[in-house]
Amino acid sequence: MKHTCPHCGEKTISPIKKAFAGNPKAKGTVCPNCGKRSTNELKSAIFHNIINAIALVFCVYAYVNLIAMETAIYMAISIVGAFVITHLVDAFFFKLVPAIRLDFD
Fold first, then answer.
1. Domain boundaries, the chain
2. pLDDT tens per residue across span 27-44
3. H or E element at residue 30
4. What do you get for the CA distance between the two ends of the chain, in Å?
5. Over the stretch 33-73, which tens digit does the pLDDT of each residue have?
6. In whole angstroms, how far apart are CA 13 and each of 46, 47, 62, 79, 96?
7. Within 1-105, where are the H helices?
8. How far apart are alpha carbons 18 and 92 in whole angstroms?
9. How far apart are CA 89 and CA 105, in angstroms?
């Protein structure tokens, strides 16, 4: 299942490349067909911030209220979970938009 490039309209971008394309100000991923860069839309960056804020609150809660070994485990789970969730959602739910950065290449 490939995703459509916003520049040339061809389905050339894999879900893995799309998952790590980044927000609109990132360098993004290069389309193998046309060579232009694209990133995930702004809604993706907002989603990342919300999920990361939830993970941060959970880490602070774990640090304050749990025993030392449990704290490390729960903090690691929340950080890795936030990373995995945000990238899976990027790979399959948000659309690609043209990159707005001009300082690459």
1. 3-98
2. 889 999 998 999 999 999
3. strand 29-30
4. 28
5. 998 999 999 999 999 999 999 999 998 888 888 777 778 88
6. 22, 21, 39, 27, 10
7. 15-19, 42-65, 68-92
8. 8
9. 28
Tokens of 27: 């360098």
36-46 CB burial, b ≥16 within 10 A, e <16: ebbbbbeebbe
Name beta bridge partners: 97: 39
Decide: helix, strand or coil at residue 37.
Answer: strand
Rounded to 5°, the CA angle 16-85-63 comes to: 135
Structure tokens at 80: 């890795």
